[in-house]
Structures are given as structure tokens and as C-alpha cells.
Specification:
single chain; alpha/beta; TIM Barrel; eight-stranded parallel sheet; two-stranded antiparallel sheet; 11 helices; globular; PseI/NeuA/B-like_N; N-acylneuraminate-9-phosphate synthase activity
Length: 291
């Protein structure tokens, strides 16, 4: 059985409720009030956490992308300028931290570079999330290990050897791994949900699922297959401008996902075959021969 990991006031592991993370990412479009509305969606749906992304744009933006023109709601600008336009800094994240706490949610982010790790440490996050794109950023992984915080590692676009290397650096004592496939939106044939058990067997840590599929079925199946954490992008409207909105869940869909996750948790049981109280009346009425 995998170990449990404590994140904030919540445990992630086999004997704990599925830790549901509402991935806001950049779906706030650089607007703190929109971010607060998404935090409300997460809280009202019954999630335990909201997650953002943190970049130092001059470092995290690939050189070949910096000068590429980007059409935005604020006009045409370079991709680097766009990254700065939607990036939250200390003032915005202070508001987010206060608001998330008031709504009873953990908040944290995926740092995309080492200075962003230090930024998030200064903000007092309860954990750090490694985005799939950063699995091979070994310098950042070492910096994350130094924080002593729990680490949630997404594994999209990564080979098992690359994950091995990341886990060797991060250690397994305070690690949660998320199975993921970084296709947006995710087609069913690329979900490969049996990898959840593969990762559990290989690393003996809590394993969850980070999904990018358009519907709910694959995420629900992941919970039934033993995912101990569940992350999905959320948006107010999938038609909004921005790169991740189309692969996100709207409020009703996310609330339904959390509802169904909690039902599945109850339905899984302990695997011990027994006669339940609800069966006693039908047993008395229908069984002709006692065994």
C-alpha cells in the first residue's frame, strides 16, 4: 500500500478522500476577479484545492517563441509581452491566498523556473506542483526538493526513465505522482488509465490523475481504478479566449465530477464479501433454501 502525503490539512492516500484539485492555471486571463470566481466554483463544487501557474516570463518563455506575434484581447503583442500581461505577482497572489483560505481551499501553483519556486515559497504555498513540461528540468526539481514541501508530479509527455530520474531527485517520502497524457483535448485512446496502477507498483507513493479530456467519463474511471488525487482544469465558459479553456470543465461539469467522485469512493467498499443490511428483507422474501 502506498504511503499517505499530507498537503495542508488534507491527506492524499489510499485511506483518504480523493484530493480534488481545480486547475485554474492561466484561465484567469490575468484578472484577479475572474480568478476569485473560479475559486468560488472550486469551493462550491467540493474540491480541496485550486492550482495556478507561476512563471518568470523572461526565463520560462522559449527563446524561439519570445518575439512571435500573439493575438490577444488587448491587441497584437509579442508572446513574451503576452506572458507578462497574464502573469500574477505578489499583490495578486496575496489576494488569491487570502481568498482561497477564506473559501477553505489549499492553493498552490506549478513553478516553471527556479525563481518561481522561490516566489511561491515566499507566498507560503502548502505544496508545489511539477507540470508535465518540467519533468526534465532537473535543476528546478532539486530546488523543489530543498524546500522540504510535499511535491505533486505530473507525468505527461514523459518516458518511464524520465520519471525515474525525477523521482530519484525528488525522493518518495513526500511525493504524489499524477498520471497524465498531455494531449489537449485528450482522446480516449491516449488516456492509458492502467498506468495509474503501473505507477503505484513502481514507486509506492500516492498516485492520481490529471485529465485534459472534454468530458467526465475518463476521470470517473480513473477514480474507480484507484486514483487518489484528481486534477481538472476549470473555466467559467469553454468558449472564452485563452489556450486552456476548451480543454476545461465548466462549473456544472466540475460539480458533477466531484459529486460522482464522492459517490464512487463510497461504492468501492473494502472488498470483503458480506450480506449488507439492505439485503436482509429481500433475502427473507426471496431465498427458498438456506445454505
Amino acid at each position: 500500500m502506498s504511503n499517505s502525503v499530507k498537503v495542508g490539512e488534507n491527506l492524499i492516500g489510499a485511506d483518504a478522500p480523493v484530493y480534488v484539485i481545480a486547475e485554474i492555471g492561466l484561465n484567469h486571463n490575468g484578472d484577479v476577479e475572474l480568478a476569485k470566481k473560479l475559486i468560488d466554483v472550486a469551493a462550491e463544487s467540493g474540491a480541496q484545492a485550486v492550482k495556478f501557474q507561476k512563471r518568470t516570463p523572461a526565463i520560462a518563455t522559449p527563446e524561439h517563441m519570445k518575439d512571435v506575434p500573439r493575438e490577444t484581447p488587448w491587441g497584437t503583442m509579442s508572446y513574451l509581452d503576452y506572458r507578462y500581461r497574464v502573469e500574477f505577482e505578489t499583490e495578486e497572489y496575496s489576494e488569491i491566498a487570502t481568498y482561497s483560505k477564506a473559501r477553505g481551499l489549499d492553493w498552490f501553483a506549478s513553478p516553471w523556473d527556479e525563481p518561481s519556486v522561490d516566489f511561491l515559497e515566499d507566498m507560503g504555498v502548502v505544496t508545489h506542483k511539477v507540470a508535465s513540461a518540467s519533468v526534465t528540468d532537473l535543476g528546478m526539481l532539486r530546488r523543489l526538493r530543498e524546500t522540504g514541501k510535499p511535491i505533486i508530479l505530473s507525468t505527461g509527455m514523459s518516458t518511464i526513465q524520465q520519471i525515474d530520474t525525477a523521482v530519484e531527485i525528488l525522493g518518495t517520502e513526500n511525493l504524489v505522482i499524477l498520471h497524465a497524457t498531455s494531449t489537449y483535448p485528450l482522446p480516449a485512446e491516449e488516456a492509458n488509465l492502467r498506468t495509474i496502477q503501473t505507477l503505484k507498483d513502481r514507486y509506492n507513493v500516492p498516485v492520481g490523475y490529471s485529465g485534459h479530456e472534454p468530458g467526465l467519463q475518463i476521470s470517473i474511471a480513473a477514480v474507480a481504478l484507484g486514483a487518489e488525487a484528481l486534477e481538472r482544469h476549470i473555466t467559467l465558459d469553454r468558449a472564452m479566449w485563452g489556450s486552456d479553456h476548451a480543454a476545461s470543465l465548466e462549473p456544472k461539469g466540475f460539480a458533477a465530477l466531484v459529486r460522482d467522485t464522492r459517490i464512487i469512493e463510497q461504492a468501492m467498499g473494502d472488498g470483503v464479501k458480506r450480506v449488507f443490511p439492505g439485503e436482509l428483507a429481500p433475502l427473507s422474501k426471496l431465498r427458498r433454501v438456506d445454505g
